[in-house]
Amino acid sequence: MALIGATVIDGSGGPPRRDAVVVVQGGRIEEVTGRAEYRPRRRTAEVDVSGKWIVPGLIDAHAHVAPWALTRYLAWGVTTVRDVHGAQDRILALRRRVNSGAVPGPRIYSAGAMLDGRPATYADAIAVDDAARARRAVDRLAVAGVDFVEVHTRVDPPLLQAIVDEAATFKLRVGGHLGLTDALTAARLGVGCIEHLSGIPEAAGDPAPLYGAHYRSFWLGWTAFERAWAGLDSASLERVAGELAARKVALVPTLVLHETFSRLDDSSVTGEPELRAVPAAERARWDVPGMVERAGWTPSELAAFRSSRPNQDRFVRRFAAAGGLLAAGTDASNQLLVPGFSEHRELELLVKAGLSPAEALLAATRNGALLLRADSIGRIAPGKVADLVVLAADPLADIRNTRKILQVMVRGRLLRPDSLRAAW
C-alpha cells in the first residue's frame, strides 16, 4: 500500500515532509519518499491522502488496559500502550492475544502486576515486605515475561533498592508511582521512570508529613501529595527537575489525571460526551461519587488541587527545558479517563504547560518508544512497524487537530474510526 500526498510528521523531531509518499508492505514501512521521486509498483494499492497529515501511531505511556478498551484506543489513534498494572495472568494473556494479531488492539507492553509494600493498595498487586521477598517477586515477574517492573506507593528505599538491583539482572527497567520514596532518591537508586509526577513534592519540600500520609492510606497520601504542590518554590522545582533530567529519568506526568481530579466538581468534566464511549457497566464500576467519598475530598480539597496545577505545569516545563524525557500517558481506564481520547487531552495539557505542539507530539510518539526501549515504534521511517494516523488538519498548527482522525493504520492494516465505533 502507498499513502500518497500527505505531509508526514515522522517522529524524528525534524521538519515535516510535504507531499510525501509512505509505502507499506508486510506490516512495516518500506519507504518514505517525495511524490516526485515515488515510482509506482505492481500490485500496490494507492491511497490518495493529498492535503492530509500523517503522524506516527500514538503511545499511551501509562495505562490500565481492559479488553473493552482495545478498539477505543485504535479509534483514537493510540496504537501502543504501556500497561502499568493489572491482574497478572489476565493482562499477560491479553498481551499475547493482541500482539499476535488474534484480536484487534494496540500493541501492549506490560508490567504484569505491580510491586507494593504491605498492605498493598490493590488486592491484585504483589505485596513484599523485605528485600529477599522483593527480589523473588522480581524473579517471578521476569519468568512470566513482563516488559518492565512497576512499583507502587508503599515501596520504601530499602525495598526499592532490592527491586532495582534484581530487575537489572534481567535488564528490566523499573518505573514507579512513588509514595514512601522521594523522586531524587528513586533516581539515585536507578529507577528509570516516575509516574504521575510522584515523589517530586517529597524531594522539593518537607517529606515528613507526606510520608506520614502515605503510610496511613493511599487516598490520604494522594491528597497530601496533590495539595503539597501549591507550596513548592520555583528554586526547589528547578533543582529537582535539573537533577532528574541529568540522571536520565523519564517522566510520565499524566496531567490529564491531575486536571480531571482537580475538576471533579465541574460538570464539563464529569459530563464529557466522550465518556459515552465507555460501557455503562464500566462507568458504574468507576463509582466516582464513591471514590470522592472514600478519598474524603470536599470542595475545598478540589480547590486546593486546582491551586497546585500551575506548579505541576511549571515543573513539566522546566524538566523539558533541562532536556528531560517526557512521555505522554493518561492512567486510563481509571475513573473518567477514556482510553484513547484522554491521550489527546494529555497532549493539549502538555501544550498548555508550555511545550510546543511538536514537543507534545514527540512525547506521545518517539519518547514513548524510547521509554519502552522499543526501536520499531514511534517513528515513520523504513523498517519501522506500520502504525500511523492520518489527520484532516495540521497538529503543529493546533495540537487539538490530533483529534481529527480520518484513518488509523495498525500493523499495516488501514482502519476507519467510524467502523470501529460502529462495533462497540
Give an overview of the whole structure.
The protein is α/β, with parallel strands linked by helices. The protein has one domain (57-377): Metal-dependent hydrolases (TIM Barrel). 41% of the residues lie in helices and 18% in strands. The strands form 4 sheets. Strands 1, 2, 3, 4, 5, 15, 16 and 17 form an 8-stranded mixed sheet that branches. Strands 11-12-13-14 form a 4-stranded parallel sheet, covered by helices on one side. α4 (157-169) links the parallel β11 and β12. The mean pLDDT is 97.
What can be said about the biggest beta sheet? 8 strands, mixed
Second-tier CATH architecture:
Alpha-Beta Barrel
Could you tell me the strand content as a percent range? 15-25%
Distance between the termini: 28 Å
Helix run count: 18
- Topology-level CATH name: TIM Barrel
* Number of distinct beta strands: 17
The CATH superfamily is Metal-dependent hydrolases
Overall average residue pLDDT = 97
Outline the low-pLDDT stretches: none
